[in-house]
Amino acid sequence: MRGLLSLMLVCLATTARSAPPAVTDPLKEGPYPVGVTTTVFVDQSRTDHLTQKPRTLVTEIWYPATDAARTMPRSRFIDFIPGGAAPGLDAFTRRAWGKTAEELNRDYWMRSVRDAPVRKGRYPVIVFSHGNGGARHQNTFWCDALASHGYVIVSADHTGNAGVTFLKEGPVPMAGAERANSAADRPRDMSFLLDQMGRWNRGGDARFKGRLDLSRPCAAGMSFGSMTAVRVAETDKRFKSVIAMSGAYPAAANLKVPTLWMIGTEDRTIGAMGNAVVRGHHEKHEGPSYLLELKDGGHYSFTDMPKLIPNFGDGAGKGRRREGGAEFQYTSMENAYRIVNAYSTAFLAVYAKGDKQCLAFLQRNGWPDELIWSARNAGPD
After folding, report:
1. Closest C-alpha among 51, 62, 210 to residue 136
2. Alpha-helical regions (H) of the chain
3. In 169-218, which residue ranges form alpha helices assigned H by DSSP?
4. Which terminus of the chain faces fewer neighbouring Cβ atoms within 10 Å, N or C?
5. What number of other Cβ atoms are within 10 A of residue 375's Cβ?
6. Inside any domain, residue 85
7. pLDDT 10s digits, 244-293
């Protein structure tokens, strides 16, 4: 933890659009309780290649909640699955995560409160894209933390590429043959979700009317979702920053939009070649670019997998070095989440809220024993 004390500073959030003005400490959870809600958006302008119906996105939204949420029951994992304790649910959860629904509810911790009242104020929007075969709720550790600092995070199942999406017509499992279609659909999904947030801000959902700051949205994602985020920021100029975990678009793009890249040195999914692509993008970037590399991190260090299956591997539990094969322990869940959340919070404070004082946090490596950190062209947008 050498160097951490040098990062014990706070950043004063000065933007009037994000209410109320508050002190941002990237090393701590934010001051707000967190709410989460599920909605379904339907894009009538697109026909889903898999379902042959209008493109439908089951969407999770995290947000700052009122103080009443402090004494309300926390969300349960099973709340992400429509129908709750339906027949056959345990069989499904055992296949997916090796646990019964009751075990998931017991073991899986979250900060959020389902459908808690939305806090007054205006909050920057982050649109998140999950990994290949992932889910809209695969990064709750990150969504909870950012919502507590005053952000609204919007994350949808990319139908056909999520592990399974529960539509009213029935469950739609991941279809591997749809990957090429998913690559085309995903950026459009993110732009559509941003459109819907504009509609909600205008009164489409009374809870969020006037609550959303849409001046500097962030596109974020993990793995295939990172590729999606990088791509959508190139095609949709409304997105003003990118957070890309464990992946990147193969061709260099978005050379000016402020970007926070994250990789694990021991990633066995995108491997050494995938990491090299990310490092290459960082080196070529003409705008503010930050590279967070967990020395003992794997692909799933940047997800909820350590919470679900602690010994999953590739970022959760024990692994073997890609070079030499020696056994080692991946970065602990606690440290990985602390590092990822801290730098995400500081990055967003600067590039989504306009808080230049948090630039100082982004200039230093607070965890040199665990982290390789690089900042290039660092400065306000």
Report:
1. 62
2. 89-97, 101-107, 140-148, 179-199, 224-235, 271-284, 305-308, 333-351, 359-362
3. 179-199
4. N
5. 18
6. no
7. 999 877 776 667 999 999 999 999 999 999 999 999 999 999 999 999 99
